[in-house]
Amino acid sequence: MIEIVMRKITPSGSVSETVLVSLPGAESQETTHSSDILTFPNLEIRINEQTVYHNGIPIPLTHHEFFTLLHLAQHPSWVLSQSMIYEAVWKAPSEHCGAAVTNVISQIRRKIGDGYIETVVGSGYRFVG
């Protein structure tokens, strides 16, 4: 089962409503999810350990890098705006996020390669695992 979080965004960019929708029987084809490990081709995210392995090699990530990657990986193929990522990872309002998300995405790509996170120009980022 896949759970989807749907948000209504006001014209000013703030979230006015959040709804959780479950799709029974919908399964991801290329991704293995267990309660504490997300596995993608050549990438393993161990949630409880807060570690990432790329091609079997542990990759040191900062707190924000790990949780940004985790947030994106938990929503594969969704386009998430910088504001959505900032609010989820930094746990703060996004009006002052500046270049924080862009910088963290850049560092993640440098460490694990740029084949996992796609930039959607004018919209945000998408995990393509």
Q: What report would you give on this structure?
A:
- It is a single chain.
- This protein is of the alpha+beta class and about 130 residues long.
- It has helices at about 65-75, 80-90, 100-110; strands at about 1-10, 15-25, 30-35, 35-40, 45, 50-55, 55-60, 80, 115-120, 125.
- The strands form three sheets. A five-stranded antiparallel beta sheet has the order 3-4-5-6-7, with helices on one face. Strands 8-10-9 form a three-stranded antiparallel beta sheet. It has a two-stranded antiparallel ribbon with strand order 1-2.
- The two termini are about 20 Å apart.
- Residues about 20-30 have low confidence and may be disordered.
SSE inventory with pairings:
Layout: E1 2-9, E2 15-23, E3 32-33, E4 37-40, E5 43-46, E6 51-54, E7 57-59, H1 63-73, E8 79-80, H2 82-90, H3 100-112, E9 117-120, E10 124-127
Antiparallel strand pairs: 1-2, 3-4, 4-5, 5-6, 6-7, 8-10, 9-10
Helix pairs in contact: 1-2, 1-3
